[in-house]
Amino acid sequence: MIDVNAYLGHFAFRRLRNNTANGLLRLMDQKRIEKAVVSSAAAITYRNAQAGNEEIVAETKGKQDRLLPFAVLNPAYSDWQHDLRVCQEEFGMRGVRLYPNWHGYKLSDGVSLEFVQAAAARRMVVSIPFRVEDRRQQSWLVDVPDVRLADAIALARAVPEAQFIFGNGSGFAGSVLPANCYVEISLLTAMISNEIGQLLQKIGEDRVLYGSGMPFHYADGAMLKLEVLDGAPAMKDKIARGNARRLLRL
Amino acid sequence: MQLTRRSVVTAMAASTALPAQSPKGPVIDAHNHLNYHTRATWADDDRKLIEAADKLGIEQLCCSILPPERPTTIEGFRNCNRWLAEAIKRFPGRVLGYCFVNPGYGQAALDEVRRYVEEHGFIGIKLYNDYKVTDPVVAPVLELAAKMRIPILQHAGHTTWLPSPQPNISDAGDLAKAAKRFPETMLICAHICGGGDWEWSIKALRDSPSVSFDTSGSNADEGTVELAVKTLGADRVLFACDLSMTASVGRLRGAQISESDRRKVFGENMQRILARRKA
Question: Which of A17, A18, A134 sits opposite B219 (nearest CB)?
C-alpha cells in the first residue's frame, strides 16, 4: 500500500505519536504499508515553512525509499521561489502541500496561481489537505475553517497542467472534479452514505488514492474503508497503490 | 455482494493483515441510531446500517431514534420509541433499544421509560440536548434509571471556543457533576470522537467511576482510545459507532492497548452493563 497522506514531526496543538521516521516506519511495517508521502506537521504553524522542510529532509535521510517527502510552502511568504527550487532540486521532494487557511492566504489569490504554475513546471504534485483538525476541537488560539472545495476546484481548473491531491476532507462526490484532481479517502465514508462508492462512480477508479492521515489519525480506519468497499480486487489495488505509483512516478 | 458475518471476518483477517482483527469476545455497539420515519429513505437507511454492522462483525447495536425537531415534543419521542420497538422486531437479536425522552415532560417521560423498558425490553435511556444533564428537570430521570438499573446514554460535546449550535448540550464536566449527585446512576458520555476536545472530555471524567465513555464519532484522531483507557480504565470505555462505522471500528482495531482491554471495550463492558438490569 502507498499512503499519500502522512506526516512527521510535532504539531503545535496536540501530541502525536509515531511521528519520527523510525516510529512511522514501525507503524507502517505493522500495517503493511509500503510507502508513505510525508510532510512536516510543524510547518503547518511555522511562519517560515521551509524550516519544517529542512527538518523533514534530515529526518527521512536514508529512508526515502519508503518515506516520500513533500514540501510545505506558503505562496504568500517571501522567497518561496527559492524554497520551491531547493525542495525539488536539492531535497528531491515530489510534491508540495498547501495550507491556505493556516498560512493566511486564499487559493483564489494571484500568488496561489503563480505558485501552482511554478510547481507544475517542476512536475511537483500539489496536495491540499482540506483540514488539519476537526474544527470542533481546535485550540482557543486559532479559528481555522476547512478549505473551500470550490476554491480548490477553481485553482485546479486554472492550472490544468498541475496534478492535485485533495485530501483530509469530504463532500467531494457532490462536485464536478476536474480531470487533474485525485481524491484521498481517509475522511470519506465507505458504508451507509458510501461517499467512496459515489466518488468511484463519478470520477472512475484511476483518481482515488489510499491515505490515512497517520500519525494524526489511526491508520486502520482508512484501511478498513478499503476492505469493506464493494469492488474487484484490481480496483482496490489501484486505490491502494497503483494510482499513487502513477501519479508520483514511482 | 451480501456477506455473512463469518465470511467477512475471515476475509478481513486474510486481507491487509492488521494485528487486531476481530476480537474473540462480543462486539456490541453502545451508541447508534435508526432513522425517524419522516426521512424518505428511513427503511433503506436502517437496512444499510445493519448491513454495515454485518460487514464489520458488530453483533448488536444499542440504538435510539431521534426526531428532527428541537425541542423534542411528546409526540416526537413517542414516535421514536414506537418505531424503535418495531425495528427491534424487524432485526431480531441485532438491535437493542434506548428509550428516548425529553425530561421536560415530567411524569409522561418517566412513564414512557417504564413502559418501554418493562414491556418492550429496552435496555436504557437516551437523552439528547433538550436539557443539560445537570438541570433539575432531569433529576427524576436519573433517579429512575438508577432504580431500574439501566444506563443513560447522554449526548455530549465540549468545544473550547466554537459557539455551540446546541445551547443545552452537556459536556463531560456536566456528566461528572451529575454523577456526584446521583452516584447510583450509570451514565454513558456520548462520542469521545464526535464531541470536540476529546482530551478535555476524558480528563474531566477521571474521578467519575459511574460514568463510561463511548468511543464513537467521525474524528479519526490517533490516541483517543489509549488516553481513555489510561485515564478512565478499560472497564469504563465502550465501543460505539454513532453512524461513523469504519472510523469507529478502525480506531478500536488500531488502538495500542492490550487484547484483554480491547475485548472489554469491544463488548464485555457493555455486556456487564446490560446484565445489571437482568440481575
Answer: A134
